[in-house]
Design a protein that fits this description.
The chain has about 475 residues and is α/β, with parallel strands linked by helices. It has three domains: about 1-40; about 70-120 and about 130-290, P-loop containing nucleotide triphosphate hydrolases (Rossmann fold); about 295-470, Ribosomal Protein S5, domain 2 (2-Layer Sandwich), CATH 3.30.230. It contains eleven helices and 21 strands. Strands 6-5-7-8-4-9-10-11-12 form a nine-stranded mixed sheet, with helices on both faces. Strands 13-14-16-15 form a four-stranded mixed sheet. The protein binds thymidine-5'-diphosphate and magnesium ion.
Amino acid sequence: MAKRRSIYACTECGAQSPRWLGRCPQCGSWSTLVEEVESSPSRAAEFVTPSPGATAGKAVALRDVAGGGAPRIPTGIGELDRVLGGGLVPGAVVLLGGEPGIGKSTLALQLAASLVTPRAARTGDAPNTARGLSVLYVSGEESAEQIRLRAERLPEMPENLRVLAETRAEAIAEPWRETKPALVLVDSIQTLQTERVESAAGSVAQVRECAALLATAAKATQTAVVLVGHVTKDGGLAGPRVLEHLVDVVLFFEGDRGHSYRVLRAVKNRFGSTLEVGVFSMGDAGLVAVENPSELFLAERRTGTPGSCVVPLLEGTRPILLEVQALVAPASYGTARRTAIGFDEGRLALLLAVLARRGNIDALASDVYLNATGGVRISEPAADLGVVLAVASSRLDLPIPADAAAIGEVGLGGEVRRVARLEPRVKEAARLGFRRILVPRASAIAMPGAELVPIDGVAEAVAWLLAQSRGDLPKRA
Ligand code: TYD
Ligand code: MG
């Protein structure tokens, strides 16, 4: 038996070193190197027999490579297909990451259910979707009974879904060969363990080795594989970064657990764009695709209340309308408080200073609270003008007209700057019945059915707000 060597791997970036070091030479993190027993390189050779016709080890001329893009398996879940770029690619490995409790297992099960359930043939469907595809669902977190309980809550119970409650990677090989699945789901990669590595489940070495094993098997059998992975507090995938290099697609499932709204985002996609996002809402019967997120976010809006402004943002390539709420209240103690939910507090402080100096609305000595409704996190500067207007509206106690929305980045000089891709935002606002849309003057466009109000700066926006409220007062005869 060959002598086994110990190596040390960084838990942050996966870099390896023959001896222990206090600091990772690759990523510079301290005390992240842990000991691993090096595994044999011939992994997965016997895991699954390769499909005939596999061209391993042979170089081919590009012209002899079948073109036309890989045939995809549409998942039947529109929002998921959108993010994947049209469906699952056979042989590709997808990593589905997200915080615990966000709904990864639910999404995975719904994906499995959708593929297993026979569908009326549609153009673009994989050949045998009419009979339902074979799917293997491997869970190291839940027992088969628990999965059944979960499946029973779905609108249609996927009776033909094969489930396997297993944590040993090698034990997947047999059912894999037997059921010849189109898709193998593993929930989660951190619970899986292979005999080839001696460290504990969830360790860098285990996660990497198991993922590599499954990736090899996926390629060999042309099976799509979805790996569920937990993320750490700071948003990184638990386990090594190398996992991201090993897989073809990395999806992140995000959202606020206090709200039902969830966003699925592609961070990496070898087969499609990373711009698209999928929007879901978590309900009693699992996740429901939200085709009109704006309507969801604006559903609870109370019009006529000061401090509320609607902003059209972009999620990927999709415009989404959101409500920004501000509350300006007298400060009770010496220092004024700034609290922002779903918005950067530093940016809020900056906008308050600009509003005071350039817009003549002084909220610097007051407490200011800001809230992006729906549990959404605003990261776009395009929301600046809406935030400024919401604060001004609360400070002046003047409601912003119900049919108005605002788009624009605010600079330190109080100027309203242009934003990327104005047109889809304006279109979405107009579609939802917003008739007056404040836009940066520099990028004003013509839009039938909506009145675009070109705005130069913060002072002009405040003047507009004051003029609206005067116009809304009952006319004196
Ligand atoms: P889950 O998919 O188990 O999350 P993860 O695998 O990412 O840890 O979902 C967990 C939460 O979703 C749980 O708190 C309950 C909630 N949930 C619903 O609200 N409705 C449902 O139909 C299901 C299945 C879960
Ligand atoms: Mg889970």
